[in-house]
Amino acid sequence: MHALSGATLHPYPVAINTHSITDTHRHTDIAYAFVTDQEPEGTIASGESHDLRWLTQSEINRFSSLDVSSNTREIYLYVLDECLTAWQRVPTDTFVL
């Protein structure tokens, strides 16, 4: 489905995973991917990470497991291998309310 009349259709996650942080603590991540040919419309809000980078496959693979977890690397590579070529591109203002 590409659109709904009178509503914003939200993206679905590319991956949802739960992993151990310690023996007694688990963490659930929800990863989204958006494919577009445009620059971002908005700016980074206060309190959000400013460490945003666009990386190639070789760049993500150069990070050690101390810098990038295995599951994050695998999701990133999936997005580059599968989503980037197969997913429909969306305008960057699609999710602006």
Residues in β-strands, percent:
5-15%
Determine the oligomeric state from the structure: single chain
**Any idea how many domains?**
1
Annotation field: number of helices? 2
Q: Output mean pLDDT.
A: 86
**Structural class computed from helices and strand pairing:** alpha+beta
Q: What's the end-to-end separation, in Å? A: 20 Å
Contiguous low-pLDDT stretches (5 residues minimum) are: none
What Rg, in angstroms, do the CA atoms define? 16 Å
| Main sheet strand line-up | 1-2
Sheet with the most strands, sense and barrel status: 2 strands, antiparallel
Describe this structure in words.
With 97 residues, this protein is α+β, with helices and mostly antiparallel strands. The chain has one domain. It has two helices and two strands; from the N terminus they run ββαα. It has helices at 57-62, 70-86; strands at 15-20, 26-31. Strands 1-2 form a two-stranded antiparallel ribbon. β1 (15-20) and β2 form a beta hairpin. The protein is globular and about 45 Å long. The protein starts with 14 loop residues before the first strand and ends in an 11-residue tail after the last helix. The model has no long low-confidence stretch (mean pLDDT 86).
